[in-house]
Amino acid sequence: MSTAVERNILTITEPSIMLDPMEMPDVESGEGDLGTIKEKPSKFLGMAIPLIRINTYEVQVDRLTSFNLDLTGFVPTMRVSFIDRDTLFMVRYFPKDGDVMQLNIRSQGEETTFKPIRIDFTITDCYPVGGNTKTAANKWVIEGKMLVPNLYNEFVEFYEGTSWNSLLDVAENLDLGYASNVEDTNDEMVWINPNDTREKFIQDVVANSYLDDNHFFQAYIDPYYYLSLVDINKLFSHFPFLFSPFCYSIRKCF
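RE: above sequence
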């Protein structure tokens, strides 16, 4: 086993999933069509303050009250709250079943070193919060989880080979990338999905993955759309900080 693979989670294949377009005029460099924008957006938009769109409704900086991107689960989840002062969101952009929430967090350095975060989320909940005042009554909370087509659909299928190679095939079927800190596992067999979702199938395969008695595995989809199979035992000594829950969050009070 090479030291590079042992100490790092390396990319095996790249994701091919197609995200909905999310563009904004390049006004900071002085190029591009300004369209109907009357003022230049702050250089912090999309960097210190994330760019969030719900059904093409863009959450303005002065209306955003809190934002939380949680990467501690199997897939990233997001929770955002904002004030709908003019009720435009409720009247024209209120989400329906299957609608998407978009997120863009710009890189704070060269994109070859620090990749921007760009995720589409399936909206899982939308509800108003607040008290008796007009401003409070127009405050909304939107929650979502990463949109991966066919991840939560049920399939009858089987994969032959090791769990490592079977998860690689599942990742390719989902248009995800694949990453791991092991080169293979020692558990060649037929892995059967008996009409479960692919999310559950992945979890079942990982629960039964085997290399030897000194290795145990975990899997997750990272914010860059890579299905990652990680030998946890290797990371205890090299990267103990990885086991602290990671959360990107901001909060403002108005």
